[in-house]
């Protein structure tokens, strides 16, 4: 990768590339994102997220966009944003009802994303749909 990072998220794009988002490098929370091309074994940078975050989720939506939700960068996030692989840009989308990190995001058969659990100064038992 171009930037060392941990506690990041990764998602497979419809073209087979891997989008890696956010994380931390030990001293800084990251808003950068990178693309891995498994055919060539190369990494390239792409547009930065609007919010630096670690412990977020990244889920490919049925329309090919990627939903990045939640995370932490000194405080817990309820924000979410969408990555457009065609343009390499990020667009904010409505916030989740609860800020969370360490949560999971699962793509359902109907194409919706189910965000569950996580932490926000204590374990969460809530869930929400995107």
Automatic annotation (TrEMBL):
The keyword Repeat applies. SMART domains: Kelch. Keywords: Kelch repeat, Repeat. InterPro entries: Gal_Oxidase_central_sf (IPR037293), Kelch-typ_b-propeller (IPR015915), Kelch_1 (IPR006652). The keyword Ribonucleoprotein does not apply. It comes from the Eukaryota. Pfam families: Kelch_1. Gene3D superfamilies: Galactose oxidase/kelch, beta-propeller. This is Uncharacterized protein. It comes from Adineta steineri.
